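Researcher: Sequence recovery benchmark, item below. Answer with residues only.
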């Protein structure tokens, strides 16, 4: 992920926060690393694993306000970088929602009590059609 793209993502994440209190978020950037490839080997049902080069995983505390804000931030990120081979990953979101991922979250600096609000993945594939994306407070689904 080049610096320009990462800056755009970081700016989109914090722009337009809907709640006044500081949101309990944690955004994990996995950028073309061996860790990301190892992680994808653990993820069941991840489509196009070999095409994924980068990922942004959004976590929040379990309050509906924080989860909704984290999802809104992911949506802003997606809007900012559409056309850069980005889509939402339900498989990665589901993986980080499982208890078996708690030790990995802790090792990556994510509080274990945080929930995974959603995931964007980048790579060499076509972006999802925005009309096909469904939303709820915990996950975006392709």
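Model:
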């Amino acid at each position: 992920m080049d610096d320009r793209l990462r800056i755009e993502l970081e700016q989109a994440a914090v722009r337009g926060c809907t709640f006044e209190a500081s949101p309990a978020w944690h955004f994990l950037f996995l950028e073309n690393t061996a860790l990301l490839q190892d992680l994808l080997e653990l993820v069941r049902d991840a489509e196009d694993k070999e095409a994924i080069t980068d990922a942004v995983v959004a976590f929040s505390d379990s309050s509906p306000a924080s989860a909704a804000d984290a999802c809104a931030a992911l949506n802003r990120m997606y809007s900012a970088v559409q056309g850069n081979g980005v889509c939402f990953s339900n498989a990665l979101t589901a993986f980080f929602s499982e208890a078996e991922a708690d030790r990995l979250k802790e090792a990556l600096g994510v509080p274990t009590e945080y929930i995974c609000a959603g995931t964007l993945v980048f790579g060499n594939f076509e972006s999802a059609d925005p009309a096909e994306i469904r939303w709820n407070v915990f996950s975006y689904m392709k």
